């Protein structure tokens, strides 16, 4: 029986990073993964690289180029005629990026001497992992000193509709359309619904988004959510709040969707329907019951702050444990667990994990919202700065949005930074560093920011906490 210091189950950003860090620290490492790529071959990288972060961002970029050339070039004095859309080429470009990255991870595995076991992994008593090969054949059982479970998550579905990946699709199917649907329905105005809804809307689809909750983007700061809703509606996303989908049927014409809102029952027909109602932890087939691995009532593997499960030397990281389902959160947990196995005292600060929603403009934040702070009865003050007052935003014609910095009323420690605007995904990094070092709004206000940059908006919002903004 082959023996390893560390056996990781799951090759997404949580698992493959944990494997690389374990190997870097001198531990013999194997990783079990069952993902089969679009080409029918085993692929590392999990949801993120194969059907999540990377392919969705590839399409977001392509659709933004198309939208820009058609709608934004003219005011710059650039005339573009005969612009045509070639969706299959767009999809091919996306697939090429995915292949480059997934092969890149396989290359990193080779370089770090990590054994890639292609198949389904399940736990066995006595720190063993059984690997049922993807291409059939007899299962191999390997012995582990430490096991890291990183089996990720899968899309949630709704009871009265079935995903056929043709007309009713989940996020994976929505990355594979070969032509632009004329009418696209999206269930769920969450991260996936808004990102993928934006892609197909920019490419020309009429997009209707149905969201069960009355509040738009409840996890973001209220001021940001309000601006974003206004902007997305202006862009053409037909967003209905308080609209709970009951049923969807594939018919000859497309998909008939039944939903209810405060005004009663409604029905409409679309060509395709994207179901984006959240994701759930994936623990199926792990054999958790036999080994007594504790899974909580929401389906997550129960772990402590160091990702230790109830079984000594078995850890769980990434989407399969509580916390935001974000690639970078899983990767950092992977690094932490590998380092703790190697005897280091590493920890992850879950309070400073940034969020980004890759709409255009982007939404990004770190820390707490005003609503959450009010609930805690914590006294705070905030400064905001609108993008329309930024010279760089004007030069770029990207004047939608704002930056908000929230700080403790007494200590001035930054408690949250919220951005809606172009390049928000990059701007938020400064706020993460500041919060990680317990910076005050004054600290951020004292730092010199290059002119003219979008980052000046962050600076101005920090100045605004003490009513000292200069350009508003
Ligand atoms: P996963 O990436 O889900 O990987 C788990 C792996 O384990 C898979 O390969 C699976 O096949 C394998 N596996 C499961 N069970 C077994 C088993 N028993 N044996 C063997 N193998 C097994 N996050 C961001 O931070 N930024 C983004 O921009 C972003 N965009 C996204 C866009 C979309 C459309 C989607 C769907 C998700 C997006 N996410 C994004 C979320 C991100 O993809 C996840 O948070 C991340 O992939 C979780 O990583 P993970 O390693 O925990 O699990
Ligand atoms: P989500 O939780 O962000 O949004 C799902 C939405 O569907 C919710 O607003 C919910 O109220 C709504 N909903 C549920 N049932 C409904 C019904 N019957 N009718 C109408 N609406 C309904 O989930 P998601 O968008 O599917 O994304 C899943 C997760 O993937 C995210 O939470 C995030 O962690 C991750 N992700 C991250 C990124 C990123 O970091 N940019 C991108 C995509 C996905």
At the first level of CATH, what is the class of the largest domain? Answer: Alpha Beta
Roughly what fraction of the amino acids lie in strands? 25-35%
Provide a count of the helices: 14
Which percent range fits the helix content? 25-40%
Basic shape:
globular
Oligomer: single chain
Q: How many strand units? A: 21
**Major beta sheet, strand line-up:** 1-2-3-4-5
Assign the CATH superfamily of the largest domain: FAD/NAD(P)-binding domain
CATH fold naming of the largest domain:
FAD/NAD(P)-binding domain
User: Average pLDDT across residues?
Assistant: 97
Parts with pLDDT < 50 across at least 5 consecutive residues: none
Number of domains: 3
Annotation keywords:
472 residues, FAD/NAD(P)-binding domain, Enolase-like, domain 1, 3 domains, five-stranded parallel beta sheet, 14 helices, binds flavin-adenine dinucleotide, binds nicotinamide-adenine-dinucleotide
Question: How is this fold's topology laid out?
Answer:
Blueprint: E1 3-9, H1 13-24, E2 29-33, H2 46-51, H3 53-71, H4 87-111, E3 115-124, E4 128-133, E5 140-149, E6 153-155, E7 168-169, H5 171-174, E8 183-187, H6 191-202, E9 206-210, H7 222-235, E10 238-240, E11 244-250, E12 255-261, E13 264-270, E14 272-275, E15 279-281, H8 288-291, E16 314-316, H9 327-341, E17 355-357, E18 362-367, H10 370-375, E19 380-386, H11 391-396, E20 402-408, E21 414-421, H12 424-436, H13 441-446, H14 455-464
Parallel strand pairs: 1-2, 1-5, 2-3, 5-16, 7-14, 8-9, 8-14, 9-10
Antiparallel strand pairs: 3-4, 4-5, 6-15, 11-12, 12-13, 17-18, 18-21, 19-20, 20-21
Helix pairs in contact: 1-9, 3-4, 3-6
Residues 158, 187-193, 195, 210-213, 244-245, 276-279, 324-326, 356-358 line the site of nicotinamide-adenine-dinucleotide.
